Amino acid sequence: MNAETFNGLMKQVPRLTLRQRELLRKRLDALDGQQKALAVIESPSSDQPRSCPHCQSSAIDRHGQVSGLQRYRCQMCHRTFNALTGTALARLRKKDKWIGFSAALVASQPLRPAAAALQVHRNTTLRWRHRFLGSLKADRPATLQGITEADETYFLESRKGSRKLERPARRRGGKAGKPGLSCEQVCVLVARDRTGQTLDWVTGRGQMTKAELASALQPVLAKDVLLVSDGNPTYRGFAQDAHLAHEAVNLSAGVRVNGAVHVQNVNAYHGRLKQWLHRFHGVATGYLDNYLGWFRALDNQHAASGEAVLAMALGKFPHLTVT
Ligand SMILES: [Zn+2]
Question: pTM for the full model?
Answer without folding.
Answer: 0.86
